[in-house]
Amino acid sequence: MSFYLDGRWYGIRLPKPSPADDALDVTLLQEQVLEPILGIGDVRTDPRIDFVGGARGTEALQAAVDAGKAAVAFSLYPVAVEDLMRIADANEIMPPKSTWFEPKLRDGLLIHEI
Q1: Is position 100 within any domain?
Q2: Quick one: pLDDT at residue 35?
Q3: What is the spatial distance between Cα 4 and Cα 82, in angstroms, rounded to a whole number?
Q4: 6 in a domain, yes or no?
Q5: Total domain count for the chain?
């Protein structure tokens, strides 16, 4: 994953708790940076964190920091379909905003008959 701070992009690799751990990048970021270092315990409710959709790209993240709207921005690789399926098959829940996808389907385009 990468983060943008003070006009520069940096790459970081967060260690997994064990070599066999299948933790998603978003989980590692939460457990090793957001909560212990920045004090952000709940990304759903903490007003200090925001989400930028993948379609806007890293340029939007960089612009937010450069404009002073954010102190730091993190960019993560998308979740692989295999990881999504593994978590769904285990009846677990994906972390917030980790299932963002583009393009979005148009409303009313799909109909499921009851």
Answers
A1: no
A2: 94
A3: 28
A4: yes
A5: 1
**In this model, does residue 109 exceed pLDDT 70?**
no
Assess if residue 41 is contained within a domain. yes
Core vs surface per residue 17-33: b (16+ CB within 10 A) or e: eeeeeebbbbbbbbebb
Residue 81 lies in a domain: yes
What's the average model confidence in pLDDT over 61-85?
Answer: 92
* Residue partners of 45: CB distance under 8 A and separation at least 6: none
Q: What is the DSSP string of 22-49?
A: ---HHHHHIIIIITTTT----TTT-TT-
Tokens 């970081």 map to which residue? 12
Q: What would the mean pLDDT of 65-74 be, rounded to a whole number?
A: 96
- Residue 1: how many CB atoms within 10 A of its CB? 16
**pLDDT tens digits, one per residue of 17-56:** 877 677 889 989 999 999 999 999 999 899 999 988 777 8
Range of the domain at 47: 2-89
